[in-house]
Design goal:
The protein is α+β, with helices and mostly antiparallel strands and 322 residues long. It is built from ten helices and 17 strands. α3 (29-36) packs across α4 (40-48) and α5 (51-59) runs parallel beside α7 (88-104). The N and C termini lie far apart (75 Å).
Amino acid sequence: MSKVKTNLDLIQWLGHDMSINVFSYLDNPRDLVCASAVSSSWNDFVIENGLCKQLCLKMIPEISGVVRSIEVDNLFVVDGNKVGYYTEKRERLNRNHRVYALLAFSLIPMNNCIAQAIYASSTNDHIRQRLANTLEPRDITEHGPSYWSSIGQSDPSATESLLYRLYSKICLVTEIHVQPFQDYLNDGFPIYSAKAIQFKYGWTSDPIEIDSKFIFRDKMAFSRHGICTYDSPVFPMSQENKLQHFKLPEPVLCIGGFLVVRLLGSVQKNGKDNLFYTCISHVKVVGQIISPEFIVRRGGFDDMEAVASNISSIQDGVGVGM
């Protein structure tokens, strides 16, 4: 019986096309990066064919505009001779592979991408009904009901806006969950939902960061200085006390790290003053964040306007004003 050769490289044995086909069954960039560490030939094959980049863009095509800001197209100029072992092309492939490999390990799934509640366009009671209450997943705590409430309005078509900061300047958002508040202390147990809801993502140059928290120079600063990179469709909101799921038509890359929830109209009057109110118990953003470490190490994200411009050909909705 002949002995089986054990030193034959799998890629050499399969050939280029079949090897590409085999690697295509890896559907997670992290697995591809791990596979490239098996041997130098596997590493060379993954790098030379740009497999990590291809898989990242297949999974998240929206990210191409962001990574384009940090990809290396011309790392250095050579005189036509080899520089050591690497040619200019090889070094460029190596660098770009590292960028996408780091990106693969920097995507962090989050149950809630919201880091901070910043402000609401109006608040009925800044102590008991503040916007920060909407970060609490329960509508009742040991301290009593937990919710945000608008001021009362005679006009049921009035719009309220809630501003949140996300955990990262770059997030991939798939859906937003919002729960209206039900008042169990009044007759009929009214539910103060909005008629409809819309979401906007963007950035602003106005907020000042203090101890990892953001403040604004005045209440309307974000409306004046904010740049919107995405407007969602308008979703109808049901008058039900449950966490309502609003799934976006496709995953959206949120550039800048700010979310505005627009509550369009009110449906419930308060029996005491006969005014319309909108009250929200909880807001949650589901998706993935790109870790701040990736943003810091790769650089180039301080200019959010330039980053937003890079994705304008991929993602509609770039405009001014939130």
